[in-house]
What we know:
Blueprint: E1 2-6, E2 13-14, H1 15-21, H2 28-36, E3 41-42, E4 45-46, E5 53-54, E6 59-62, E7 65-69
Parallel strand pairs: 1-7
Antiparallel strand pairs: 2-5, 3-4, 3-6, 6-7
Amino acid sequence: MEKITVSITTEFIKLDSLLKLANVVGSGGEAKILIQEGEVLINGEPCTMRGKKIRPGDVAVLPGVEITVE
């Protein structure tokens, strides 16, 4: 599994923006589909909200990729 660490300078980042920032999707539309199909876990729980606020310490898991936010 590929592990990616993303640093943010704000209080939070929205889930779809995180996937784009980490370069695991090519577009917002691609992020939307992955999220709506339940392919993304946030801290071990399925998340279908693309606007979910992701804060430092949260971990997003997609098939083959783990993204840690710091």
